[in-house]
Amino acid sequence: xxxxxxxxxxxxxxxxxxxxxxxxxxxxxxxxxxxxxxxxxxxxxxxxxxxxxxxxxxxxxxxxxxxxxxxxxxxxxxxxxxxxxxxxxxxxxxxxxxxxxxxxxxxxxxxxxxxxxxxxxxxxxxxxxxxxxxxxxxxxxxxxxxxxxxxxxxxxxxxxxxxxxxxxxxxxxxxxxxxxxxxxxxxxxxxxxxxxxxxxxxxxxxxxxxxxxxxxxxxxxxxxxxxxxxxxxxxxxxxxxxxxxxxxxxxxxxxxxxxxxxxxxxxxxxxxxxxxxxxxxxxxxxxxxxx
Length: 291
Prior knowledge:
Layout (H helix, E strand, L loop, with lengths): L11 H20 L6 H21 L7 H13 L2 H19 L14 H22 L9 H25 L2 H21 L7 H30 L10 H26 L4 H21 L1
Helix pairs in contact: 1-2, 1-5, 2-3, 2-5, 2-7, 3-5, 4-8, 4-9, 6-7, 6-10, 7-8, 8-9
């Protein structure tokens, strides 16, 4: 089934358990899929973790195990990050040079420690199995429609706050913090898309576009940090001054898009958003019961 609540879920809490277990199962299967490259498997594992954390935040008001399980998934994802981060930084540099119409010098063809990644993926799969076992003990009876609306409001409110801070401070760290909550909000809209299918797909896409632009901004910030500290890690022949200037210009261009998208995604007050989604969810449940 898809990453959202379904008419087949007996209760809202049952839907949460189903979605969580589906994502955990897909995380395990992806991590152990020997037909895919370690690079691809790491990417998919981290994507599943982001979905799980967005799901946990959505039911946070009624999920007693939230703090422990969110931290567990966060740490499991971080354990896979090192090799992936260098690959992303290399790709960011290549794309930046293409944007600046400057040929990129050859970069190391393979900086990843594949044996280390495979070992990390094996450990990750074990952690996800432990999470799946614990899910049988999660208490979900308090999770209802108001839980979902309240959880969405909380994440959205954090997105509003971090967005204001990013626009005020204009630092890479502030934009990165906004990116995290924009990504959570995007995933949560996807979880609830079925309750207002005539309205939410466009809002979902807009939130995804904002998260993507903030992601590009963050990737450039990571590249700039490497250019400032250890450019040789990218390989020989790097024109540090040109790349740094290009990254500054590219970030400024992206920030203009972020400003437009941010105003669209976070235009509403959190209380108004909760009221609107409460109405969507209640109407959805009435329609489901009538069919």
